[in-house]
Amino acid sequence: xxxxxxxxxxxxxxxxxxxxxxxxxxxxxxxxxxxxxxxxxxxxxxxxxxxxxxxxxxxxxxxxxxxxxxxxxxxxxxxxxxxxxxxxxxxxxxxxxxxxxxxxxxxxxxxxxxxxxxxxxxxxxxxxxxxxxxxxxxxxxxxxxxxxxxxxxxxxxxxxxxxxxxxxxxxxxxxxxxxxxxxxxxxxxxxxxxxxxxxxxxxxxxxxxxxxxxxxxxxxxxxxxxxxxxxxxxxxxxxxxxxxxxxxxxxxxxxxxxxxxxxxxxxxxxxxxxxxxxxxxxxxxxxxxxxxxxxxxxxxxxxxxxxxxxxxxxxxxxxxxxxxxxxxxxxxxxxxxxxxxxxxxxxxxxxxxxxxxxxxxxxxxxxxxxxxxxxxxxxxxxxxxxxxxxxxxxxx
Amino acid sequence: xxxxxxxxxxxxxxxxxxxxxxxxxxxxxxxxxxxxxxxxxxxxxxxxxxxxxxxxxxxxxxxxxxxxxxxxxxxxxxxxxxxxxxxxxxxxxxxxxxxxxxxxxxxxxxxxxxxxxxxxxxxxxxxxxxxxxxxxxxxxxxxxxxxxxxxxxxxxxxxxxxxxxxxxxxxxxxxxxxxxxxxxxxxxxxxxxxxxxxxxxxxxxxxxxxxxxxxxxxxxxxxxxxxxxxxxxxxxxxxxxxxxxxxxxxxxxxxxxxxxxxxxxxxxxxxxxxxxxxxxxxxxxxxxxxxxxxxxxxxxxxxxxxxxxxxxxxxxxxxxxxxxxxxxxxxxxxx
Lengths: 396, 335
Description:
- With 396 residues, chain A is mainly alpha-helical.
- Chain A has 16 helices and eight strands.
- Chain A has one domain: Cytochrome-c3 Hydrogenase, chain B (Orthogonal Bundle).
- In chain A, 48% of the residues lie in helices and 12% in strands.
- In chain A, the strands form three sheets. A three-stranded antiparallel β-sheet of chain A has the order 1-2-3. In chain A, strands 6-7-8 form a three-stranded antiparallel β-sheet. Chain A has a two-stranded antiparallel ribbon with strand order 4-5.
- In chain A, strand 4 and strand 5 form a beta hairpin.
- The longest helix of chain A is centred in the first third of the chain and has 29 residues, at 110-138.
- The N and C termini of chain A lie far apart (76 Å).
- The mean pLDDT of chain A is 83.
- With 335 residues, chain B is an all-alpha fold.
- Chain B has one domain (75-334).
- Chain B is globular.
- The mean pLDDT of chain B is 83.
- The chains are: A mainly alpha (396), B mainly alpha (335).
- The A-B interface holds A 25, 27, 33-35, 48-49, 136-143, 145-146, 150, 223, 225-226, 228-229, 376-381, 385 and B 42, 45-48, 143, 147, 150, 215-216, 218-219, 222-227, 299-308.
């Protein structure tokens, strides 16, 4: 009996001291998944709910735009580039056209530049409103989606009124812009300009957007659960963000005051008075909040631009067949998602010799393996959503 | 005539069959009413129209159309699935909700079965549905389903405790566990117990939301994370079973909350002979008020994270519930 008791004690002690081992599991998130914003695939090695190694797999949407643009003329390429980041299609066209104009040495009329600027900011508003819609949805709140999308529709209607397209405007020409109104051979005599009432309607829409942003802030920012889910989650220190090439609102959320609208001169932003909102800690909450504040700043810019839009032609004089002279240039712009750049090499033909596209989302998601190290599975979604990328912008 | 009917229903088998039919009819009916309410209310909250065409007006037949659609769909069982477990899981979930309805008093004497341990039975049976959810998650042969099922199990352990502890205060006040006994105690006390047991009521509703795995506690489903959680692999009428169970569960847990805290079928100022007829209406009214609150939450709040939910349960709700029990005990002894 004595021996039995010893044995029992020994067995019970040994069974307690055995560590609870759980099996590691490989979880494929995507390419078909509700919150990967398209066809991103994450290969996550998870231990229960904790992921300790997340590798993004990209390329499911590669369309070869860089190569395609080598066999197309400059006006044809605008149709391609506005499909890169389809959430803000208009903003993709501008830096490319500006790059071509820079090589040609064309001075774009001021009114055309203002129109480009207004539409760029409206594209930013609509893109950020999509984020305002989708991010709470990823955290489980379905209703802010409708508040944000309703206002976005207002903005997109105006964009459509000018350009004829909601997502893919194809509106910029080398040397200016070409409104849909009054185009075509039979109406050639009609002066091509912005649609009647566009400026007044835009002013109206901007007020409505501001109202909606206030409403969204009330609905989302004052929510305890949203705060609990986003504050202190996915902290991105400024040095790390900069070293990975993260740009745009994601970088500014980390506290870096870097905005190409203040630095570059691709559009006359220096004429306007606006602030660059920055975050404090670089967590998901800051990334959400910076975008909210940016909508307000964009509204400010649009309002100023409407007040100060000069009259004049929309198109500079350009030859019928555009041949861009030999040379190379790099134009970068502050797109809604971050820094968008076109490195354009011309050998004097109708199309570029080489076009390198630097897209914001591609660099922004390069941070994923770093930032998703050791987070919980629900936080993977929260962090991924807060980076606000578009797969078309990643894969090009 | 009335005598004949009374005689007929005093026969054990006839009354049993009648009750069974009634319960079996109630579940789909309640499911449809709540499902339709959810569709229309969520539409209202999101400035949409909601169901519009089905049935000619207001889309009243939308849920019937959906039900028919689900029955037409292929009953898919994944290759990797554990077939018998996969097939029995939705049935288990539905059965547990049906079994809870049995002990809800709809009026004085209007109860399917007045158990002595009514509330104990209800809480025990309703947690059976989580076993069904865990079975569904495990047997689907899908990693997302598995994670959903495990989350549901974790949630059950965390929230069954505050749910039970929140009820204890009421049971102490009433001095009985029988559901109709608790209502009668409230009638004789002259006030619904929520006045004394507001902490218990709050905890009960939060824990009930977690038990139902509805937003803000819908981690087992979590569309944006786990695709559809334990429901991912289900289709056709098995999927419909889960849905019916969710809506019926909403109803039954709300009805339990009404019975325990809000006076059940009783409203102050209504004479007893009217109560016999108005009871079911009053109970349904109160219950749908709570169901409305749940729907309201569903379309307003985002979702917690699993560890935050555990924190809330173990660090906030359980100590609060224990304090509530102590306070109730002190109240009972000294007043």
